[in-house]
Amino acid sequence: MRRSVRFGSFQVLEFEQDIFAFSTKKPGLHKICFRSNAREARRVVLEVKTDIETKDYSEVIRKEHLKPLELEFLKAEDTMRQVARSARAVTEMAVVCI
Question: How confident is the model at residue 85, as a pLDDT?
Answer without folding.
Answer: 86
